[in-house]
Structure formats: structure tokens, C-alpha cells
Amino acid sequence: MEKHTIIPRSLVVRVVLFLALCQLSLAEKRTYIVHMAKSEMPAMFQDHTHWYDSSLKSVSDSAEMLYTYNNVIHGFSTRLTPEEAQAMETRPGILSVLPELRYELHTTRTPSFLGLDQSAAMFPESDSVSEVIVGVLDTGVWPESPSFDDTGLGPVPSSWKGECEIGTNFTKSNCNRKLIGARYFARGYEATLGPIDESKESRSPRDDDGHGTHTSSTAAGSVVSGASLFGYAAGTARGMAPRARVAVYKVCWIGGCFSSDILAAMDKAIADSVNVLSLSLGGGMSDYYRDSVAIGAFAAMEKGILVSCSAGNAGPSSYSLSNVAPWITTVGAGTLDRDFPAYVSLGNGKNFSGVSLYRGDSLPGKLLPFVYAGNVSNVTNGNLCMTGTLIPEKVKGKIVLCDRGVNPRVQKGSVVKAAGGIGMVLTNTAANGEELVADAHLLPATAVGQSTGEAIKQYLFSDSNPTATVLFEGTKVGIEPSPVVAAFSSRGPNSITAEILKPDLIAPGVNILAGWSGAVGPTGLAEDGRRVPFNIISGTSMSCPHVSGLAALLKAAHPDWSPAAIRSALMTTAYTAYKNGKLIQDVSTGKPSTPFDHGAGHVDPVSALNPGLVYDLGVEDYLNFLCALNYTSAQINSLARRNFSCEARKTYSVNDLNYPSFAVPLQAQMGSTGGSGGGTGSTVVKHTRTLTNVGPPGTYKVSTSSSSDSVKISVDPATLTFSQTNEKKTYTVTFTAPSMPSNTNEFARIEWSDGKHVVGSPVAISWT
């Protein structure tokens, strides 16, 4: 028998009040990142860390520094009450005290799809690529993955200053000549959520999630023959830069990725001498001086490190982008020419195509009872197949149709299976349209688009005895059209700086095969006991490391190129049309995609090796950009770690940032004249750009094309002649627009060509 102890009511009240007060005092403290003006350190302090500590102790006796930062910012992170944070802001030498943010992860065929297999001779020798180090901030690494085999690699580059940190299930011997460094950062995470539960995740660089192993092996995984997921996508798996070295920085945990940890990892990565940084994560949108990733990326850019980030998975909504700072390369997602068809065969004789990565016992070779989840549930949202919502008596032995949304796709199949169902059809709703993402379901299942789902429901609701089965067809390649822009890929316009077009470009991000953690099954569900060396997943998390790896190849081929030059080469050579001339489609609409969807277009690494001309940018250009945004000296100092004042007499314009694309936001107004004239009823906007020759001498002529004639685009001069390498030439683009447009958005393209190279820039014109 259970014992039920009776406690006096007064004692209960006192205990509850005590616990509530404890919780209140704990809840008041949160993590802040404190930005210091290093140049203002009093002479009495010999070391800046002593100054930081003294400043902290002046507002809190108990607070301790979580991290001190040396490269990404001058300052530290700590736990403070809001009152203490306010007091800290008034202390001398304090630029800002910003609350920590939580960031989230943006959750084989690729090399040949990108043309890397046939063009090996065009890429740099393996010796130069093996000097390039790709740093990946993610969930860590599964070092036993064959993608980190170091066979054939020479000594670790002499430039490397990092290390292999030890921790739970991770020793120095887990690193090798391929995986040359591994660190983990958990102080910010633990300060907010308490100590890591080591029975659930490793307090070390070890990846218990799979995401980090997938992204790092996509960027620079070694060549592995015979790779597949349950036989799907069988072939040779290899990263974009298979000879480059990998350094892993674990910043993401079960509870998310915290900005104090992200900043600490970027701080170390810069000190460790990585050449490329890959971050498949994002947070909310905020000004650059408040955005930890943007702040860290600025410091990396100064050191010549290209920072590649995922655009986010909040598409197809407009203004849904993450990581939009102009010194970050922002990557959206497209599809490959590969699919995994699985058909729904109905009792009325009709067949509908879907996709699946299920591998296991097949369904019986006959039609089976078929039900709609909403009709076999005990809750109003039963159609979503959420945990515990299906009635086993009504589900057992049947195929269940579930609607997509709220809970993970694979979990819906697990719920059906737990209730006794033997198969699932997962249908998209309006939010996902016709986009199909394949999953390694735990039971026979397929995913179908919205229109297919509607047709299947019509049969389900009208037939008195509906039946169905699912047929699996394996892997198909040569799918057309491809690529198409993924519906989940976040879209512009840029909500922070409308004059900077984002995303920068798209890369493969749907159904990507890469290395996986041995600690978790392919679905990531606790009940999934399967273990696989490779997994197929989707997201801008997958497209970002493609570009990170390609940037490593370009860095090896052109060691003197700046991050801006590398990004420019990738953008100006990207393609926006298929070989038949039709524009790349957006799967969410079935119509041609726009620069707000695909940026400059889909990456084309072979062309990027030899772009002809590049749009280069340096630190001073970005500082002038911040002046154009009317940033204060303190805000610039927080971001760029220097005393920099914008000149009062100088006119700064965002339109003069030497970006490889053009965004022209306009305000619709009657009878207005803007810019430098253009006549009553029109708006004139001018953009200035400078091209640097990185190819042979040549004469480039400009051409423009537009989706509409309502905006006049003129380029002056129309011809640029380059006689030597690194020569620079400037041109101006004038946009003359009517004050009352016929459309909300218009799109155009500006191309410079010498007959061999085509240097393309997208143009997005929008009225608000």
C-alpha cells in the first residue's frame, strides 16, 4: 500500500512561498553580454580581464564571468539581475549590456549535380585544399564517422592553433589529420538551464544529435564509397571540399544554442586560425550590433575568414530571413535532381505519387482499410496525429491519413504505429503546398503534396469502405525541373536593411545524404533504435555547408581573395535559369522564383573558380555602411571593436556598399521626385559599384534585362576595359521609377560580359 503523509496546511503554505521566492530570485538573473570600450581601460589595470572583473564586482558581489572575449568583442558574459544590468550600463567604459539570445538549428548526389566530379582538373591541387580549415558551429561531431577518415592526408596545417578538448566519451585520440580540432561551449547553456544531463547528451564535442556530423561532413567530409541510407541514395558520399580539414565547435544542445556560447566559439575559432566558418543556425531578427552571429562574423571577416550561414526555414513567407548582415554569406535551399518516390494506391484504382525513405517490412500485398486521423481521434486536432490522440480500436491494422503540421513528420508515423496502425499517408496542408520532404519513417509511410492530399481525402470521405496501400520505388535520379527553390527556404526582402538583397544564393538543401551520429536513429526519435552511418535530411542547415565547402575550394585556388571576393565569385556566376532557358521554379507557387527567393541564383562552383571580375569589400567599406545606417559611435564600437566616428561632412549611402546584387526599395507616392531628379512623377535612385579584375585583360560590356519596362535602368559607363589583374573600375546604375507602380515588386538582371565570362547581378525593386 502507498503511504499518504498528511502535512499541516500552514507548513505547506510556507514551503510554497519559500519556493516561489527562490524561483523569483533565480528567474530574475539572466545572462548578459557586456561590450567594453577597451581603449578606455584605466591605467591602474595592467590586464583588461582585471578591469572587466572590477567593473562586474562594482555592481554585483556574487556575479562571475562566464566567458571573456578577446577577438569577436571586447568584453565578457555574466549572469545579472535586470537592476544590476542597468547599473552596469552606467559604468565607465561600458558600450552596451545586451541580454543573451537563444538560437535554433535550421534543420552523395550533390557533387555530381554541381559538376564537381567531371571538373576535378579545374580545382586546386589537393595539397593546397588540405591547408584550408573549415570551422563548423553546431551540435558537435561523431568522430568515428567514415566521413572523418584521414587516410592520405598529410600533417595538420602549421597555421592551426586549435585543440581537441576532452569530455564525456571524447578524448584527444578522437581527432586526427581530418578532424583536426573539436571544442565545446556550454557555460551559457548551463547558466540558463542548469547542468547538462550527461545521461542524455555528452558534455564534450561528441554529437548526440546528428545535425553537426551531417553539416560538417557535407562541407568537408572525406570520400566514402558505398554510402547510403537503407539503400536509398546509394553511391559515393563526399563533402564539397573532401581534402580540407574540419574543426568542430559544439554550441548547440538539447535546449538550443545560446549566444554567449556562440560568441565564445567564434572567438576561439578566430584564434584557432580557421579559414571558413559555417553556421547552420539562426535566431530572431535584430540590428547588427545586437546580433551575436553578426558581431562574431564581423571579427571573422576582418581576419579573412568567410562566414557562411543558413537563411532559415521560415519560408515561403516574405521577410522570413535570418543572418542578413552584408559581411555574412546567407544561403537558401534548393532541390537536387534526385527523388525517393513512394506511391499511394487507392481502392478506386487511382495512384498518387509521394516520397519516402522507409525501409523495412512491406505492407501485405493487398489493399488495406484506410482512415482519416481526424475521424479516429479523441481530440479536435486529431488530424495532426499528435502523441496519444488516436483511438487504438479504430486504428489497429489500418493505414492512417495524417495532416502535416505542429509535431515532427516522423513522430506522426510513430504515433500511428503506437496506436496499432500499419501504415501512414502524410499530407501537406496549405502551409507546405506541393513541397515533398522524404523521411526514414518507422512504419510504411509516404508524404504527398496538398493537392494530392485533397484528392485522397475526397475518396476517403466519399467511399463507404475506403482502402489503400503504399508502394516504394527506391531512388530515382534525373528529376526535372531541378533545382527548384524549397518552400521552407526563408525569403526576402531583408527586414533589417532593405537595400541589401538577401539571401545571397541557394544551394542543395533537400534530401541531402551525409554523415550521422551513432547515438541516435535517422528520425531523431527516442523510440527509433536504428543506427545508420549516413542520413538524409533537409533544411537550409544542409545548403549552408555546401557553400562553406565550396568557399574552402575557392580559398585554396585563390588564397589572396577576401571573403567578399569569394562570395562575389559564387554569386555572380550563379545561374537563374535551366538549360532550356526557363527560370528556376519556386516549389511553393509552381511559378518562376525571384531574387527574394533565390538571391543571385543557384551556386555553380565550376564557374565560380574563374569569375572574371569580383565585387570586393573591406572593413572600411562596412564601417561606411554602418555610418549610412546612422549607427552611433558606441554601436559601431560594440560591433567593430574600435573607436570610429562617422565624418559629419561626409555623405554616406547604403546604395554605395559594393555588393554583388541590387535591392531598390521605393516608397509609392503621388507626383514625387526623388534622388537627383528625373522629372515630376518619378523617383530616381543611384547605386555605385566597383569591379576588380581577377582574370585576363579584357573589355566587358553591360546588358540589362527586366521583368517590366516601368522602371528604367541605365548603367554608366556601359563598357569597362581592364588591362591588368586587380585593376578596379567603377560604374553607376540609375533606376528611374514611376511614383505609382503597377506591381509591388519588379525584378531585373545586370550582366557584364567579355564574351567568355558573365558577371551577373540580380536586381529586386520593391514598393512599400
TrEMBL record:
Domain Subtilisin-like protease fibronectin type-III: 656-765
Boundaries of every Peptidase S8/S53 domain copy: 131-581
Keywords (A to Z) from UniProt: Glycoprotein, Hydrolase, Protease, Secreted, Serine protease, Signal
GO cellular component, one term: extracellular region
Alphabetized GO MF terms: serine-type endopeptidase activity
Sequence ranges assigned to domain Inhibitor I9 in this UniProt record: 31-106
Name under which the protein is recorded: Subtilisin-like protease SBT1.7
Catalytic residues of the enzyme: 138, 211, 541
Gene3D superfamilies according to UniProt: 2.60.40.2310, 3.50.30.30, Peptidase S8 propeptide/proteinase inhibitor I9 (3.30.70.80), Peptidase S8/S53 domain (3.40.50.200)
Gene Ontology biological-process entries: proteolysis; system development
Region forming the signal peptide: 1-27
One Pfam family here: PA
InterPro entries, per database record: PA_dom_sf, PA_domain, Peptidase_S8/S53_dom, Peptidase_S8/S53_dom_sf, Peptidase_S8_Ser-AS, Peptidase_S8_subtilisin-rel, Peptidases_S8_3, S8pro/Inhibitor_I9
Biased composition (Basic and acidic residues): 197-212
Cellular compartments annotated: Secreted
